[in-house]
Amino acid sequence: MIISGTNLSKVYGKRKVLDNVSIGCAAGEICGILGANGAGKTTLFKILFGLITPDSGQVVLPNQSVKPIGGIIEKPALYEYLNAYDNIHLFASIQGLQLTKQEIATHLVKVGLPTNRTDKVANFSMGMKQRLGIAIALLNNPACLVLDEPFTGLDPLGVSSLRRLIADLAEKEQLAILLSSHIIEELSKLCHTLYVLKEGKLVNAGPAQQLIAENTYVYNICADNIKQSVCLKNYPVEFKGNCAMVTIAAAEVPSLIQLLAAEQIYITSCTPELSMEKLFETNC
Question: Rounded to two decimals, what is the model's pTM?
Answer without folding.
Answer: 0.86
